[in-house]
């Protein structure tokens, strides 16, 4: 459990909440005589906590976005696929308590099970440390990562479209350095056009550095 807490960046005061969040109904059903409870109630609460935090974030950061777009964006951020990505980052499947049948059937990799467990863990953090603690985890594992992906898509796609106005143009991204401790590294990426450097960028991840390099390249080419 300590390894999972390390990945989450949160230390539980009541470890029983985390234990409950990782207990699938199949395990609870096999251990009814011991009074074991499944994570389904926590999943219910976590779904609401996640939806509220994401909705609040979108409302504050996109003041001009209409209700329909806000709803669609929130749905994409809280969908099963998004939660499965979070579970993979945390290796959450390896910590689950599953019944024998679910274990044999590959339950640790089942998308619906690990996605529900993410919601249950968020609820456990909320109950243990309040909405601020839950918000930090949602920001780190869902909102920040989505920002990186969107930014990377935008600038890299824009640069690709810009250089393709002429045929035979080849872009390349190279990691040229990194600095800082493991938990707070800064990466530097250089983008070249036909082997010639045209932009350089830094970021907290390689993807973020790539998008900053693409942005710098666009500014240079349009300069």
From TrEMBL:
Record keywords: Cytoplasm, Endonuclease, Hydrolase, Magnesium, Metal-binding, mRNA processing, Nuclease, RNA-binding, rRNA processing, rRNA-binding, tRNA processing
Compositionally biased region (Low complexity): 211-223
MF terms (GO), sorted A to Z: ribonuclease III activity
Catalytic reactions of this protein: Endonucleolytic cleavage to 5'-phosphomonoester
Annotated RNase III domain residues: 1-130
SMART domains with a match to the protein in the record: DSRM (SM00358), RIBOc (SM00535)
Compartments it resides in: Cytoplasm
PROSITE patterns for this protein: DS_RBD, RNASE_3_1, RNASE_3_2
InterPro entries: dsRBD_dom, RNase_III, RNase_III_dom, RNase_III_sf
Swiss-Prot/TrEMBL cofactor(s): Mg(2+)
E.C. number(s) listed in UniProt: 3.1.26.3
Ranges for domain DRBM: 154-223
One Pfam family recorded for the sequence: Ribonucleas_3_3
Active site: 47, 119
Binding site residues for Mg(2+): 43, 116, 119
Domain of life: Bacteria
Segments for region (Disordered): 195-223
Coiled coil stretches, renumbered: none
SUPFAM superfamilies in the cross-refs: dsRNA-binding domain-like, RNase III domain-like
Presence of keyword Nuclease: yes
Gene3D superfamilies, A to Z: 3.30.160.20, Ribonuclease III domain
Enzyme class, broadest EC rank: hydrolase
Role noted for this protein: Digests double-stranded RNA. Involved in the processing of primary rRNA transcript to yield the immediate precursors to the large and small rRNAs (23S and 16S). Processes some mRNAs, and tRNAs when they are encoded in the rRNA operon. Processes pre-crRNA and tracrRNA of type II CRISPR loci if present in the organism.
Subunit and interaction comment: Homodimer.
Family membership: Belongs to the ribonuclease III family.
Descriptive protein name: Ribonuclease 3
Lineage: Bacteria, Bacillati, Bacillota, Clostridia, Eubacteriales
Gene name as annotated: rnc
């Amino acid at each position: 459990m300590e390894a999972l807490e390390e990945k989450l960046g949160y230390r539980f005061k009541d470890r029983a909440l985390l234990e409950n969040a990782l207990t699938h109904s199949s395990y609870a059903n096999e251990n009814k005589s011991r009074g074991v409870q499944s994570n389904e109630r926590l999943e219910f609460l976590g779904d609401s906590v996640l939806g509220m935090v994401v909705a609040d974030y979108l409302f504050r950061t996109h003041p001009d976005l209409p209700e329909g777009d806000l709803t669609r964006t929130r749905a994409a951020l809280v969908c099963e696929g998004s939660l499965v990505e979070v579970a993979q980052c945390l290796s959450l499947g390896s910590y689950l308590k599953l019944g024998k049948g679910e274990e044999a059937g590959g339950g640790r990799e089942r998308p619906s099970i690990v996605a529900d467990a993410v919601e249950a863990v968020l609820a456990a953090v909320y109950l243990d440390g309040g909405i601020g603690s839950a918000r930090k985890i949602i920001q780190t594992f869902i909102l920040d990562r989505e920002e990186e992906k969107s930014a990377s898509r935008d600038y890299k796609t824009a640069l690709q479209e810009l250089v393709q106005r002429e045929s035979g143009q080849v872009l390349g991204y190279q990691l040229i350095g990194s600095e800082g401790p493991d938990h707070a590294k800064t990466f530097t990426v250089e983008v070249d056009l036909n082997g010639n450097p045209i932009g350089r960028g830094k970021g907290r991840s390689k993807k973020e550095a790539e998008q900053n390099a693409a942005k710098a390249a666009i500014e240079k080419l349009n300069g």
